[in-house]
Predict the structure of Fucolectin tachylectin-4 pentraxin-1 domain-containing protein.
Amino acid sequence: MVYPMKVVSRLSVRCNNMLLVMLIHTILQLSVTAQKNLTPFGIASQSTVYGGTLSNPNNAILPPISNDFDLNICSHTKDGIDPSADWWMFQFSFELAYITDITIYYRTEFAYRMDGFKIYVTNTSAIPPNGYLCYEDSDPGLPNITQNIPCYELGKYVIYYDATGDELYGPVVELCYVAINGEITFEYTMCMHISHNYRT
Ligand SMILES: [Ca+2]
Ligand SMILES: [Ca+2]
């Protein structure tokens, strides 16, 4: 796989730090790569949970792959609690993932709540997100409730962030299915890849 130069640059810094650690601890890390949907390798969280144990954020990473809404199969943040922004976040259990694209199935007939959403890939769980903005719904029309968003970025977190709400309820996030596609790769493997392909 060929990585964009911005990714290579960031990784080079991480590689230098990592190699130092390796000298001290002489840790041999094995390469483990997972293809395609990476959501089995982590957990989801969200700003608030509507309906107690229902509308769990992890509903969004489990089937069915559908826009059909039910509190048992979709995530749903509380309405009117925090008018500034609502969010849904996926955290990888691995240190680093290379994310190629993100597929979203939003609640059917509720595109107006999806309006204004942003997708970030970050290295921290900070809110508002502090990282790479993969996509922002900035046009005046309503977004398509089923989307595939290219990203091509390294990170530990994927954050769906929405600060755009209506006057009645404020921002609300209702995700019925999310797939995060890419590769999970230990940094050691990434560094060896860069060393082989990019260093002069
Ligand atoms: Ca819009
Ligand atoms: Ca919105």
